[in-house]
Amino acid sequence: MRLTSIDIGTNTILMLVADIDTDGTLTVIRDEHAIARLGKGVDANKMILPETFERVLGLLQKYKNISEDCGSEKILARGTSALRDAQNQSEFNDFIRKKLSFEVSVLTGAEEADLTYLGAISDFLQEGAKRNFAVLDIGGGSTELIAGQDLEVKSRQSLDIGSVRLTERFLKTSPPSSLGVSQALSLIRSQVTQFSPLSSTARLIGVAGTLTTLAAIDLKLPSFDREKVHGHLLTFDAVHTIFNQLRIRTLEELRSIPQIVPERADIILAGILILLETMKQLNANEIVVSDRGLRYGILLREFQETKTRQ
User: Fold this and answer.
1) What is the pLDDT of residues 275-301, one digit of tens each?
2) Same structural domain, 133 and 91
């Protein structure tokens, strides 16, 4: 069956159109990514801004058109942190339903964690072998750490820190002030202490834009390439070196770096700070980058539920 998933995040909105074979294998037809800043102002006001409604509508209309052109049977749209926090969540969802005739379901933190884990590990499973995984998802509004063995989630931990939240609160200048970085680090450190240590056998996997951007920079790619960043191994030292290189750049200079999507340039430092402090807390010297995540998990879970119903 051919299905479409749309991951409506705080910073980015991603769409995946894929065929799912009878054994659960995914064949990607279209994989789209755009920065829509749904969560702009949500941390401060707990409201999705009026201009955001129209901006997101335009992007979702484009995604719906692509989905229909690809012959997809169904659109599965899921909202995450910003929609969970927004007091006008129902107004936004009603707006999208009336304009585009599909529903946006808002995931709980636990549901988001489970689906992200499922998507992230799907390309790293080995038949017949029991493997421990920990998936780190640094989003715009929140950061999750999900640990499990093969397909079974054992623990979920979520923090209300994300690259958009931290940037709006502390990293307001470019380059950021020493005080701003210090304040951001103080908050991050107070939060990541909640993360439990990893099993010595756990493989740490990182998803979302901070990780994929860092992989592209580390690989010195001429431009961002999802296929090449997927599976790349990032070391703590490499991430730290990249942070020191980027923290002294102006916003214009960051936007000119070929591996950084221009719309992500203003929040990349916040995401890297979260990653560095999390790796310290977990005593992890390396992390594997995955370009898979929630949008893959949404389709895999739909496949599993469809099989159960049959």
Assistant:
1) 999 999 999 999 999 998 899 999 999
2) no
